[in-house]
Amino acid sequence: MNATAETVTKSDAAVFDVERIRADFPILAERAHGQPLAYLDNAATSQKPQAVIDAVNHYYRHQNANVHRGVHLLSERATEVYEGARDRVRDFINARSSREVVFVRGTTEGINLVAHSLGRGFRKGDEVVISHMEHHSNIVPWQQLRDQLGIVLKVAPINQAGELDMEAFEALLGERTKLVSVTHVSNALGTINPVRRIIELAHGRDIPVLLDGAQAVPHAGVDVQALDCEFYVFSGHKMFAPTGIGVLYGKEALLERMPPFQGGGEMIKMVTFDRTVYAELPHKFEAGTPNIAGAAGLGAAVAYLNAVGMDRIAAYEHQLLTYGTEQLQQVPGARIIGTARDKAAVLSVVLDGVHAHDIGTIVDRKGVAVRSGHHCAMPVMQFFKVAATARASLAFYNTRDELDRFCDALRYAREVLV
Amino acid sequence: MDLDDLYQEVILDHKRNPRNFGPMPDANRNVDGFNPLCGDHIHLHMKLAGDVIEDVRFEGEGCAISTASASLMTEALKGKRVEEAERMFEAVHALLTEEDVDPDLGQLGKLAIFSGVRQFPSRVKCASLAWHTLCAAIQDDGDEVITTE
Ligand SMILES: Cc1ncc(COP(=O)(O)O)c(C=O)c1O
User: Fold this and answer.
1) What strands lie across the sheet with A152-156, from one edge to the other?
2) pLDDT per residue over A51-90, tens digit each?
3) N or C, fewer C-beta in 10 Å, chain A?
4) If 0-12 CB within 10 Å is exposed, 13-18 middle and 19+ buried, where does residue A32 land?
5) In terms of domains, do A67 and A162 share one?
6) Residue A323's domain spans which residues?
């Protein structure tokens, strides 16, 4: 996905000690229905390493107070934790400045922030370009804007492999395109979009680009300066941090020009009944008491990921993907939905004669957790003419053995139901 | 709780060979039922003569539980009065959601096999989809879409 991931040598990945990694995640020792838990639902949310759990715990035991408010010791500690996490995220995604790192609740809120704030400047007839493989969170906010302002939503098509049709995408860009908002990695298909090319094409026409990085950030290094996108959004809980904390990265010049999203405390410099002077970035976009403990956890997750190494994570997951794909191809009646050439470790499967919901229940009884459903991407299901898929989405703590168990459970599901 | 309690032979039989499956050109009630959680979708067709359900059929795509539930429901409903159908709905609903219902409730007959579903909370809506759709079909004479949410 990034240049460095491609240059990792095989031997690096071969020494990837997954058992040691697994020991860092206490929940992986759970049993499910009497079997060892095989957690293959990481695209929905990831599990948390002890370091993250400890950071949250430590925050509440030793640091808890409101941020940016008191002069007392705890308030200073809390502020330090919160802003320290922001600096770590800045370095993690290589943002120029911490002013470009806005804490939000998650990807959904990040996209809504841009839709409400940047979108306020859109006029009737202006266009936003998305793709056919978006998560609902990158569809619905733009539809709402369409209904409020009369903007036009343009959808770039995909092909049978689940890849973006780049010619058709380019043809959608025009005079009135105000934003391109596409996913970096598809949660339903695993497709890694050619985001550099997308950005290049958009920038050729002075169109800003928002990337939904929810499924990208946990699995490979992301460098927002190298990408040169205007916005990059992701969720903490999918990258081994707590729920309720996420990040909107935005280029400073653009964020400066955008109006605040919500109003309240934290986001002001001065308030009278006549007028309000807004706070500096990034606080202008962070109204109200933020999720400080969540930020503490996110900071710890970033440190943990750095210690493991994003390049090694990407290389190991790629090996798992290759292995899982081969194994699934041996399962009678199984078909993988999403076969893009450039793909993240997501295996979305339909099984002849067995509905995804039944797969979900049956494999669960074998201790294997997968998601069955439409994965908040109903247009993707409509495109492939399936009601739902069973999706195994991997993280760097997963193993080949777990993939074998998934495949065995699929075979068993066919035995029971067909 | 065992998988066999959920996927009982009768349920598997109706999943493999759904009864009363297909269109009904002379239906006077047509309702779509949708479970947004898993994408299950059924179209229920009904011919209502006065307050008697003369015929009822279904189409659509769903999991084993929702297909078998719709199939068994159509079998149970044919020739029943609306009032009886409503009582059956109540009984099925109780069977699926309430802890201590006696599954031999006389009127349930074959439908009692769905008692196992209660132990699989994420599957209750699969079993109830057809029944919710039925309620809508009884209450309204227009075409409409109902969901389990
Ligand atoms: C690609 C993608 N975008 C957006 C989201 C929404 O993320 P969240 O629910 O954390 O806001 C998800 C997660 O489900 C996702 O996979």
Assistant:
1) A101-104, A246-250, A231-235, A209-212, A177-183, A127-131, A152-156
2) 999 999 999 999 999 998 778 999 999 999 999 999 999 9
3) C
4) middle
5) yes
6) 309-417
Cα Rg of chain A, angstroms:
22
Cβ of B40 and A361 within 8 Å? no
The predicted model gives B84-110 an average pLDDT of 81
Last residue of a domain, which of A306, A328, A358? A306
Q: Is the CB of A233 within 6 Å of ligand 1?
A: no
Average pLDDT (A237-263) is 97
User: Rg of chain B's alpha carbons, rounded to an integer?
Assistant: 14
The domain defined by B3-146 folds into Sufe protein. Chain: A (3.90.1010)
Same domain, A357 and A249: no
Bridging pattern class, strands A231-235 and A246-250: antiparallel
- Catalytic residue list contains A376: yes
pTM of the model: 0.92
Give the closest of A355, A365, A416 to B63, CB-based: A355
CB B31 within 8 A of CB B10: no
The residue ranges of every structural domain in chain B are: 3-146
Least confident among A321-325, A378-382, A385-389, B139-143? B139-143
Q: What are the tokens at B73?
A: 């429901």
- Do A138 and A63 fall into the same domain? yes
ipTM score assigned to the predicted complex:
0.86
A107 lines ligand 1 (CB under 6 A): yes
Q: Is the pLDDT of residue A347 over 90?
A: yes
The count of structural domains within chain A is 2
**Side chain identity at A191, as an amino acid letter?**
T
Q: Please check whether residues A211 and A285 belong to one and the same domain.
A: yes
| Whether residue A87 is found in the same domain as residue A123 | yes
CATH number of the domain that A335 lies in?
Answer: 3.90.1150.10
State the pLDDT at residue A10. 45
| pLDDT tens, residue by residue, A3-58 | 444 344 444 545 799 999 999 999 999 999 999 999 999 999 999 999 999 999 99
The amino acid at residue B105 is L
Q: Which of A358, A381, A418 sits opposite B39 (nearest CB)?
A: A381
Of A286, A306, A326, the domain-final residue: A306
Beta strands in chain B (DSSP E): 29-35, 40-49, 52-61, 144-147
Q: Report how far residue A95's alpha carbon sits from residue A217's, in angstroms, rounded to the nearest whole number.
A: 14
Buried b / exposed e across A189-215, counting CB within 10 Å, b at 16+? bbbbbebeebbebbeeeebbbbbbbbb
Which of A167, A140, A137, A139 has the alpha carbon at shortest distance from A155?
A: A139
Q: Are residues A266 and A337 in the same domain?
A: no
